[in-house]
Write a structure and sequence with these properties.
Blueprint: H1 3-16, E1 25-29, E2 33-38, E3 41-44, E4 51-55, H2 57-65, H3 70-75, E5 79-83, H4 85-95
Parallel strand pairs: 1-4
Antiparallel strand pairs: 1-2, 2-3, 4-5
């Protein structure tokens, strides 16, 4: 597992806090690996998920830090979403 994925797991876990997420989402950080968010929290992994979001490390970090809006990244082609778009929206609300 890359240092970027390890840092992303910690950052997403902190950002999610006590919020619950009743689906399964996978973030793929291009060239680095993937992480899973589900009802158990955040962990590194490449399991099947309801929705998969893919971005490069810079875009992912910018979204986490609040510098880039995930919807704007998606509309600009910097973030791809595959699967349940409703689940992606729920994830966005849980992490806001």
């Amino acid at each position: 597992m890359s240092d970027i994925v390890t840092a992303a797991v910690a950052a997403l876990g902190e950002k999610l806090g006590d919020a619950s997420f009743d689906g399964t989402a996978k973030f793929v950080i291009e060239g680095e690996g993937a992480l899973i968010i589900d009802s158990d929290g955040v962990r590194a992994g490449d399991d099947e998920a309801d929705v998969t979001l893919t971005a490069d490390a810079g875009t992912f970090q910018s979204i986490l830090e609040g510098d880039t809006n995930a919807t704007a990244a998606f509309m600009g082609g910097k973030l791809s979403v595959d699967g349940d778009m409703g689940m992606a929206m729920k994830l966005g609300q849980a992490l806001a």
